[in-house]
Amino acid sequence: MIHEASAMGLLRTILIILLIYFGVKILARLFAPFLMKFVAKKAEEKFGQQFGGFQNQANQQQKKKQNEGETVIDLSLIHI
Questions:
Q1: Strand, coil or helix: what is 80?
Q2: What is the rounded CA–CA span in Å between residue 3 and residue 11?
Q3: DSSP code string of 6-58
Q4: How far apart are CA 11 and CA 17, in angstroms?
Q5: pLDDT tens digits, 62-80
Q6: CA atoms 6, 11, 14, 16: torsion sign
Q7: Could you give the dihedral angle defined by the CA atoms of residues 35, 39, 44 and 45, in that order, rounded to the nearest 10 degrees?
Q8: Rounded distance, CA 9 to CA 17, Å?
Q9: How far apart are CA 67 and CA 73, in angstroms?
């Protein structure tokens, strides 16, 4: 069976497409701030982990350089 396109069907299809387009646009405006906060938080955590690792390594190397030749006795490990 062959169906012919009608003007009413075409208008209905265009209307559905426009409703979907504007619906997505409105939802994007509502949820974009939450999505951006989430993405920024994740990027900040990732950057903090990477930068924090380098910072800890640099601090440890600097402490080693400062303490070269010194003898340190940690008395907290001795149990009486």
A1: coil
A2: 16
A3: -HHHHHHHHHHHHHHHHHHHHHHHHHHHHHHHHHHHHHHHHHHHHHHHHHHHH
A4: 10
A5: 666 656 667 767 676 666 6
A6: negative
A7: 100
A8: 12
A9: 13
Q: Indicate the DSSP class of residue 78.
A: -
CA 59 to chain centroid, in Å, comes to 27
Token pair recorded at residue 20: 């979907």
Give pLDDT tens digits for 18-69.
Answer: 999 999 999 999 999 999 999 999 998 888 777 766 655 656 666 666 566 6
Structural tokens at position 69 = 């030749």
The closest of 47, 44, 65 to 55, measured between CA atoms, is 47
Per the structure block, which two tokens stand in for 77? 């490990």
The model's pTM is: 0.45
Look up residue 33 and give its two tokens: 């701030």
